[in-house]
Specification:
392 residues; alpha/beta; seven-stranded parallel beta sheet; globular; binds NADPH dihydro-nicotinamide-adenine-dinucleotide phosphate; binds magnesium ion
């Protein structure tokens, strides 16, 4: 029996995780569930899954949840705030942590799980992009098991040799390239000069995946793929030159690994996050996920093309940040979070997102990252610079 904490249980990944878990009550028990603002949803999850602990974002949310649970006769302990998130991520009563909070807010609890040596199922890519070196060192020092949930990285993981160790990096196993597939998002076929007028509603309507709002906008700008390039570099010890992005609008091949002997291994499936979630939960075994089998004859043709970096400047910004190293990816991530928020709140147009990120990366100098305090200071500076630029 695995005892699981789900950080971000009310989100898209959190709900899919509970769906997979509910199919295997003999294997998984929910130890803790966390939410930020969706208290009624969290209360319903607590009634159904009976966790030991539930965590909310605020004291008011915690009182509201406690009152709901009391009325329903659910004995779950209710806590709130970042320290509580870190506590349930590292608690000795839990074995596995699904890290599915969105954005930099997930860094502290995801890192706490890694430091405590948990089996960490990582969806919160921003945490790794920000703190790659510190995060991977924490995993190595504590002996934590890190399994990727992001569908592309989970696919790459499945296509790597069984004895793959990050220590030898991508070179050491005859790996020529990691081929990271990208759907291209909702605006792949749209004329570039009309992009400024797109609305948040159009941007979050992803053609293949149903996801949270922030990652949906990231997919539309292709910053999501940029974050994923950096995520892959850390997870698999690969250089920027070893990671190639390939547009594949159908999202059937979730990524590939190309070897020096000419073999290319791919992982295929319907675009449903329950597949990578089930893979990581059960690894190295396999369990049913509820996802329908792939019907290749219905798909018939698979399409690929190279990404256009002029059209999607965010992808280039991410490659630049990876190459610059140090805190550059954290600066980029912070600026992106502010820009996406401003776009979703209709403060700026779609094309301003990449301009704002580029401006912050040009004006805030990046630094080597040696400890968390310095990293958080860089994150703060980038957000401040982004907000100043927004005002002007
Ligand atoms: P959602 O927006 O759907 O959910 C985010 C979750 O995080 C919610 O439970 C939310 O709580 C919680 N949350 C938000 N802000 C805070 C905060 N400040 N402190 C604590 N908790 C917070 O996001 P997704 O599920 O789509 O994405 C989660 C992560 O997984 C992201 O990093 C994303 O990049 C990654 N990912 C997602 C994929 C997908 O298909 N959705 C695919 C691959 C990766 P509440 O709702 O209660 O406010
Ligand atoms: Mg992905």
């Amino acid at each position: 029996m695995q005892n699981i904490t789900i950080l971000g249980a009310t989100g898209s990944i959190g709900v899919s995780t509970l769906d997979v878990i509910s199919r295997h009550p003999d294997r998984y028990r929910v130890f803790a569930l966390t939410a930020h603002t969706r208290i009624a949803e969290l209360a319903a999850q607590c009634e159904r899954f009976r966790p030991e602990v539930a965590v909310t974002g605020s004291a008011a949310g915690a009182s509201e949840l406690a009152a709901m649970l009391r009325r329903a006769g659910v004995p779950t302990e209710v806590l709130w705030g970042e320290a509580a998130l870190c506590q349930v991520a590292s608690d000795s009563r839990c074995d596995t942590v699904m890290a599915a909070i969105v954005g930099a807010a997930g860094l502290a609890p995801s890192l706490a799980a890694a430091q405590a040596g948990k089996k960490v199922l990582l969806a919160n890519k921003e945490a790794l992009v920000m703190s790659g070196q510190l995060f991977m060192t924490a995993v190595a020092d504590s002996g934590a098991t890190l399994l990727p949930i992001d569908s592309e990285h989970n696919a790459i993981f499945q296509c790597l040799p069984h004895d793959f160790t990050r220590g030898t990096g991508a070179d050491g196993h005859g790996i020529a390239k990691i081929l990271l597939t990208a759907s291209g998002g909702p605006f792949l076929a749209r004329a570039a000069d009309t992009l400024d007028s797109v609305t948040p509603e159009e941007a979050v309507a992803h053609p293949n995946w149903v996801m949270g709002r922030k990652i949906s906008v990231d997919s539309a700008t292709m910053m999501n793929k940029g974050l994923e390039v950096i995520e892959a570099a850390w997870l698999f010890g690969a250089s920027a030159a070893q990671i190639e992005v390939l547009i594949h609008p159908q999202s059937v091949i979730h990524s590939m690994v190309s070897y020096v002997d000419g073999s290319v291994l791919a992982q295929l499936g319907n675009p449903d996050m329950r597949t990578p979630i089930a893979h990581a939960l059960a690894y190295p075994e396999r369990i049913a996920s509820g996802v329908a089998p792939l019907d290749l004859t219905a798909i018939a043709h698979l399409r690929f093309e190279r990404p256009d970096l002029q059209r999607f400047p965010c992808l280039k910004l991410a490659y630049d940040a990876l190459q610059a190293g140090g805190s550059a990816p954290a600066l980029m991530n912070a600026a992106n979070e502010v820009a996406v928020d401003a776009f979703l709140n209709r403060q700026i147009g779609f094309r301003m997102i990449d301009q704002l990120i580029a401006r912050v990366m040009d004006t805030v100098p990046h630094e080597p990252v040696t400890e968390m305090a310095g990293l958080l200071e860089q994150d703060r500076r980038a957000r401040e610079a982004a907000r100043e630029y927004l005002k002007s």
